[in-house]
Design a protein that fits this description.
By secondary structure, this protein is an alpha/beta fold. The chain contains 4 helices and 8 strands; from the N terminus they run ααβββββαβαββ. The longest helix has 19 residues.
Amino acid sequence: MDRNTISKIVRKSLNEAFCSLHGKGVRLEKRTKDIKTQLCAEGNSKSFYTCAKDVDNSNHGEWLYDVCWLKYGNAPSGTTYLVDSKLDFLEEAALIVECEWWHTRGRRCNLGDIRDDFQKLLVGRACVRCMIWEDKEQDKSKIAKSLARMVTGYSATDSDDLYLLARYTAEGFQYWHLSGNGTLS
């Protein structure tokens, strides 16, 4: 599956999760769980092996990131399995996702919390890397611009890397695509 299709599916999933939660005063744990559930449902429907903590429809618990969509391949003939014939040969990471909310873990998050989660995406390899966050900044693109500078400053960045940035607001998600060359669109 190409990365533009993956990005479109993720945006659709986030918009659906937002519509089901908007105005209901739900706790952050429920918001996170609903988003992860929606993303896992979409990943499963596309035959990905999904990973997310505390989500009934994921194939596995949390695996490095808040949500992952993985594809496993067949072992080459004559290969000795390390552990499991189905899970030893990771073929593709289609999507990796990190979420950071304004109030989290009993305290307000700060911009360093968003930075720390985003740096996990920087070192990851996936078709699409998605950062979801909520902030109270007046400048709606301040954090997106900061993340773009982080991408261009990271030595292992490829120009064709794709990040989907999703800023949670009271009106819905605000999206940017961030390319490896630092361009926001």
